[in-house]
Design a protein that fits this description.
64 residues, 4 strands, 2 helices, globular, Alpha-Beta Plaits, alpha+beta, two-stranded antiparallel ribbon
Length: 64
């Protein structure tokens, strides 16, 4: 199963990932990114791929 990799040093908390895949990504009140899990379920693959693409600082990757 694919896994989500986050470069937390690079993440600036823009929130586009959360807007694109809210079932996977969540920003807390301080703008810190949290994942609901690090594995990508088949039903979430499309949304997670879109979230990776829209990240303005390229902090997200999917490892197959």
């Amino acid at each position: 199963m694919p896994r989500i990799l986050v470069d937390f040093d690079r993440c600036e908390g823009h929130g586009l990932c959360e807007q694109t895949a809210p079932e996977v990504f969540r920003l807390d009140d301080e703008g810190v990114l949290h994942l609901t899990g690090d594995e990508v379920a088949p039903s979430e693959e499309s949304a997670v791929s879109a979230a990776v693409r829209v990240c303005p600082v390229a902090a997200l990757k999917v490892q197959l």
